[in-house]
Each structure stands twice: as C-alpha cells, then as structure tokens.
TrEMBL record:
This is Aquaporin. Belongs to the MIP/aquaporin (TC 1.A.8) family. Pfam families: MIP (PF00230). SUPFAM superfamilies: Aquaporin-like (SSF81338). PANTHER family: AQUAPORIN NIP1-1-RELATED (PTHR45724:SF13), AQUAPORIN NIP2-1 (PTHR45724). Gene3D superfamilies: Glycerol uptake facilitator protein (1.20.1080.10). It comes from Microbacterium rhizosphaerae. Keywords: Membrane, Transmembrane, Transmembrane helix, Transport. It comes from the Bacteria. It is found in: Membrane. Its main location: membrane.
Amino acid sequence: MSDSPRTAPASPSASGSGTGSALIAEAFGSFLLVLALISTALFAAGFGEGTAAADKGVGFLGMSFAVGLAMIGGFYAFGPISGGHLNPAVTLGLAAAGRFPWRRVPGYVIAQLVGAAIATTIIVLIGLTGPVGWLKTVQDAGFVSNGWGDHSPSGFGFGGAVIVELLFTALFVIVFLGVTHPARGTRLAGVAIGLTLTVIHLATIPIDYTSLNPARSIATAIYGGGEALAQLWVFIVFPIVGALVAGFAYRALFDLPADGGVTAD
C-alpha cells in the first residue's frame, strides 16, 4: 500500500462528477432543503391555530423532521454527483478539512445560494394565491428568517444566537466529515446527517429559528424585511466560523498524515 497522501471528495462516489453537473446538483439539493423547511414552517407549522383544529399544525417538530428528511433525500439523490453539501458552511468545512478543493468553493456557494433563493421565491409565488393578507402577514412576521430578540421565537438574545450558530454548525460539520470519510465513512451517511440535522433543529428552533446554513438565512431574509436583513450577518458569519473551526479541528485531530489521513488539495 502506498504511503503517499490522498485527497478525498466529500462523498466517495462524487470524485468523477463534472463541475457543471455538481453545481446543478448543489442548486437542486439546496432548493429541496430550503423549500421543505420554509414551506413546512409557513404553511403547516401553525395550521389551524385559533380554531377547534389547532392540533393539526405540525409545529417545531414538523419543521425539524421536514429539514432532516429533505437532507436525507437530497444527500442520496445528489451526493453521488456533488457530495451533497447543500450548505455553504458544509462546503467551507470540507475545504478546511482538506476534503474539498478551495478553488471549487465559490461555485458551490453560488449554486447553493441560487437554489435556496429560488425556493423562497416559489413560496412567495404560492403565497400570492393564498388568503387575502396571508403573504403580507408572514412577511411582516419575518418570513421565518433567523433572528434574536424580538425576532427569536422565544425571545432569546444575541448571545444565544451566536452560540447556537457557532457550536451547532461545528457539531453538524464534524458529523458530516465523520460519516462521509473515505476510509471510515458509512453507507448510511445520509441518514446520520439528516437525523443529526433533525435533532439540532429540535433543540434550537425556539432560540433563533436555526440556521447552520447561510444560504437558508439569506433566502428567507430577502423576503423577511429590514430587520431580518439587519440581523442576517450573524447567520452568515458564525455558521462559517463554526464550520471552519470544525474542519481544521477534524483534520488536526483525526486525519493526521501519519495515520493515513487526507491532505489539502
């Protein structure tokens, strides 16, 4: 066996994919992820509130499973093509870990942003056909944009949002790196990633609506009004910082060259 270092893709089967196909896959996957989460939040989470059918709404539990199940589907559908990142933070974390070439990061991030923005735009178009005033009401309420203070579902402050986005993004990226490792990964990687995302949302949606994903935050903020845009920077900066910390830490702790780990592209 050769002792020379090797570079691994985010998914063992993604190495042969063309750049164009990978970018389209990332856009489609990000579209799926954001559409599932935000549609559930706006159309189904509070369905029936204020009526005798109040128990019909899926609430935070439904939102959490919506994003987790969408992640499982997206990962298995698009992972073999692009690695199934579906999130700029994941792409940056993989690059920091030496598992994805830095030169391809901008293209992936742009594709993810486009896919996510199309998803929220589709939701707005659906909203235009809804009851009178429905779309204005949800936009005035922030369009499920991430936020703190008055824009937190439970009134948590700035510090809570920072800790959530930094810590839980780092944990999510570490799980992603572990289950997709080219030597130690598992065929059930998509299930592990999706269920981890579900658990994180269950724990943190009440704090700041849970981002972990700058593309998701940007896509909702563009329809969420001025305050959502003013707070958006937190949900770009801290998921990225958390992902980079996780990527560099995973590489240093678990992928040392002496142990046959991966190296930077």
